[in-house]
Design brief:
single chain, alpha+beta, Jelly Rolls, 9-stranded antiparallel sheet, 6-stranded antiparallel sheet, 15 helices, 15 strands
């Protein structure tokens, strides 16, 4: 729901209440000829008031957001026009709506500086968090330092429950009883990570503490710690390269430094994507992008890594669909992020529910190649077909509903004008000069830093477009093409597109020979383009079915 609609709803409800009051007053007057009419109008208006009140209750939070928007925008504008009233510690390089407009135009990762200098969350050091959480135990994921050229998925890690105080003592080198369950692990060859900790759960009831994250400074008014997660790790802790299928990401670095290695969405073909282990909205890469195995994954040479080290007080913007690998660089690391919903997430949720259904359906079968750990520990263990089909139906129903999203809530007027100009100049020579206008440039500078592509080392590339790695990737592509030709030959020898049974027996192994594993089958079935096509057909079939049903229920005139 837009802010303007919410304001109109409040005005509409107020007008109805006034009209109902007038009808009631007229009904009480001693005029018999108007009492009947006033009574009918009073009943009708009351029904409309009840409907508007229900809508108003649903939109009340959005109306409060509108008031916050106007108050903060007016305060920021007044401070900017009167610099003498602005304290140096309160200065920010971008106004909230300016930052929001920038985020809507950024297509590459960028680092904001100076936007969070007044945020109380910058005081959330490990010591402070340990004091607030007390004896509350968190789940830590433990991994090996620098494994052999393979990503360390969450299914490869160990897990313990410990307090933040015990974690702090372990990071400080304490080897006594004070470290609790960390006693069995050496920080020299083990890292620990408390990841995905939802602040609304961790600090439930502590509303003042949750307000320490002021995402409203980026134009997301009303968003704070309640819609954020906390990440606490030691040196070497991190998350393997993956792509989030929902939304975009804002990350605040609080303590220590983190190295982010990002790849554009079009690099997916070079990152060897997989949905195993399965985690909702996460597509993993088979490549350890920090120390890639080029013999096993030669196409990775053609990828375009963007690397940045995030320092305390900086905010990183991760655009939609950008792949990212994250690693902590200091003994103690604290950061927080908020995933921002997009209007396109409704379609993505249908595709995700479809992917979950296919993965769980095939991997839960009793078969010899289904003995691997295919479900991430963070996922619900209920993988029954009934549950997954319910998720799929809910996603399809939600896709047909209009719900508020954080992007875009305030469409940029310049964007509307540009689209209108482009539409009007089509076929109109008098407006052709409007179509040649270049888009507004991104104001990169000291307070907004682009995350630039990293030039690959000579081991991986010659530094030119015709580099060694690119040539390797092309050779692999030619090999894959040859494999496709061989498959076509087998199809030519078959009948009706199916390989003859005699041919299978001649190739050896008979019916029980494993030619295609479950994981290989899944890799084909859950490819993004395949899932997107099936999801689109599902949505269209549901719409067509509902349309036919409504037409059948409509009485003929």
């Amino acid at each position: 729901m837009t802010v303007q609609y919410a304001v109109n709803l409040r005005a509409y409800s107020t007008l109805l209440i006034c009209a109902r009051t007038v009808c009631l007053c007229l009904f009480l007057q001693p005029f018999e000829n108007v009492r009947g009419v006033c009574f009918v109008l009073y009943i009708s208006i009351t029904n409309y008031v009840r409907k508007s009140e229900l809508l108003f209750l649903w939109s009340e939070s959005h109306l409060n957001t509108y008031g916050t928007v106007m108050a903060e925008a007016e305060s920021e504008t007044a401070s900017r026009t009167n610099p003498s009233k602005l304290e140096p510690s309160e200065w920010r390089p971008f106004l909230p709506l300016e930052a929001r407009e920038l985020l809507s135009r950024l297509e590459h990762p960028a680092v904001f500086r100076g936007m969070a200098t007044t945020w109380p969350a910058l005081g959330w050091t490990l010591q402070r968090l340990s004091e607030v959480t007390g004896e509350q135990r968190l789940q830590f994921r433990l991994g090996r330092m620098r494994p052999e050229k393979s990503p360390q998925f969450e299914t490869d890690c160990r897990y313990i429950l410990a307090t933040l105080h015990q974690f702090a003592q372990w990071c400080a080198g304490d080897h006594g009883e004070a470290v609790g369950p960390f006693l069995d692990f050496d920080p020299a060859d083990t890292w620990a990570y408390a990841d995905y900790k939802y602040l609304a759960v961790l600090f439930a009831g502590n509303h003042q503490f949750l307000q320490g994250l002021m995402w409203s400074d980026f134009g997301y008014f009303g968003r704070d710690g309640r819609q954020s997660t906390l990440w606490i790790g030691s040196d070497g802790a991190g998350t393997p390269c993956h792509q989030d299928t929902y939304g975009c990401n804002l990350v605040l670095q609080i303590q220590g430094r983190k190295r982010w290695t990002l790849f554009p969405p079009e690099d997916a073909q070079f990152l060897y994507p997989t949905r195993l282990p399965y985690e909702e909205s996460s597509v993993f890469s088979r490549v350890d992008v920090t120390q890639p195995d080029l013999a096993g994954f030669p196409c990775f040479c053609a990828a375009h890594p963007h690397v940045v080290t995030l320092n305390p007080g900086e905010v990183l913007f991760v655009p939609p669909k950008w792949w990212h690998d994250v690693e902590c660089l200091d003994p103690i690391n604290v950061s927080s992020n908020s995933w921002i919903e997009l209007s396109s997430d409704k379609e993505a949720r249908v595709e995700e529910a479809l992917t979950r259904t296919l993965v769980c359906l095939l991997k839960s079968q009793d078969h010899q190649d289904n003995t691997d750990c295919w479900l991430n520990p963070t996922e619900d263990e209920d993988v029954t077909y009934k549950t997954n089909l319910r998720f799929l139906n809910l996603a399809i129903l939600g896709c047909g509903q209009s719900e508020p999203s954080d992007i875009p809530n305030w469409p940029n007027p310049s964007h509307r004008q540009q689209m209108a100009s482009t539409a009007n100049c089509h076929g109109n020579p008098q407006r052709s000069h409007l179509c040649s206008q270049s888009p507004k440039p991104i104001p990169y500078g000291p307070n907004l830093l682009p995350v630039l592509p990293l030039a690959l080392s000579p081991e991986f590339s010659t530094g030119t477009e015709e580099g060694v790695c690119t040539e390797k990737a092309r050779k692999i592509a030619r090999v894959e093409g040859n494999r496709g030709s061989k498959r076509e030959e087998l199809e030519d020898r078959s009948t009706g597109g199916k390989l003859m049974i005699d041919d299978i027996n001649r190739q050896g192994g008979g019916y029980d020979q494993v030619v295609v594993t479950t994981n290989e089958l899944l890799d084909c079935l859950v490819r993004p383009e395949v899932v997107a096509l099936v999801a689109r057909h599902l949505r269209e079939s549901v719409v067509a079915r509902d349309t036919i049903r409504r037409l059948g229920e409509t009485p003929l005139s």
